Fold Cytochrome P450.
Amino acid sequence: MKRFALSPSDPDFVQNPYPFYDLLRAGGKMVFWEDLNLPVVAGYDGVSMALRDTRFGREAPEGFEPDIPAHLRAFYDIEDHSMLELEGERHTRLRSLVLRAFTSRRIKALIPDLEEITNDLIDRFPDEEFDLMPAFAKMVPVRIICRLLGVPEEMSDQLLTWSNAMVAVYTPNRTRAIEEAASKAATEFSDFMRSYVEERRSKPADDLITSLIAAEQDGEKLTTDELITTCILLLNAGHEATVHSLGIAVKTLLEQNTPREFLSDDKIDGSIEELLRFDPPLHLFQRWVYEDTSFLGQPLKRGDKIGLLLGAANRDDDTWDDPDRFDPTRKVKQNTSFGAGIHFCVGAPLARLEMRVALPLLFERCPNIYLTDPPVYADTWHFHGLARLMVHV
Ligand code: HEM
């Protein structure tokens, strides 16, 4: 297996990881990335196959469960009940309960709310140059996920703070301070959810918390701990990636001078898929190996881990013509940005809808929007996203 070395915090890599992904892909179907201490797959076919292959999964195989230090216990008390970290029966049960509550009717019904939130944010844009991330990209997803779940929207800023602290644990170079902050946020977030769920038991409404409470009260389907974790997972996963997909989408559309017709009703779906392929917000997911086996010509042992580079798979020239070109007319193939297989993103229809409503409204109401500074990506590789997006409207 060929070996490659590059820090995921390397400034050039942070701003543009794709040239390094090309090197990895040219090195073989599976290569070793020394700085991550991980064999990684960067080709489209390999990533797509691994995501669907039951020899691999997200939950540690028996005997390989990592030791959890005391200062991270509170964080893992939440993670232990997360469908994203489970396989088998518990994953299927939790996922199907969420999918049952996450109906396409309920998602579609959010269109007027999305329009209202987007318009409200645009109304507040200042006259001088400003950062579109906090003013827009961060706020649309958190406010809509609050409405979908049935959590007060005034909690948005607090939820963002907790969520940012928790997901920072997935940063490759995390420190003790990051871990302690994540555990503190997990404790506060779950205390809030517990008391909020208690309060909501006697006040049913047409929202996800009500559906999840019903599943919890309906016999053995959902324990209270699972209910709390599922709410936290949906609130966190429900906005972190979407924030960056919106920010990057605006950057790409402006930098590429994309004609506005590509945001029209009949063309926007193709544009969204191309935006998500071209520069997705999540680049690396890991899988445990469940049996001694071989994959892509490499021997693997039970208890090994492999890394799947979703962002690299989307730029594989064996799959995509001229992959580094942003082309909203591209005949859409399935990009890997939402994953595949049993963990395929539950929120994909909502994320797509948020982009479908927010982007055309932004460009329609701010026809003269332009970048005032080159956009800067943040050095938080678990999310490939912008630290700043300075614009004038
Ligand atoms: C553009 C925005 C988004 C992107 C790029 C994205 C991407 C992903 C990816 C790649 C996975 C699979 C992880 C893996 O296989 O290891 C995933 C899983 C998941 N996503 Fe998303 N996501 C987005 C938005 C959302 C939203 C809006 C929600 C919820 C409202 C959400 C909820 C989830 C959940 C619950 C899972 C776990 C599913 C499971 O384990 O069965 N995501 N997402």
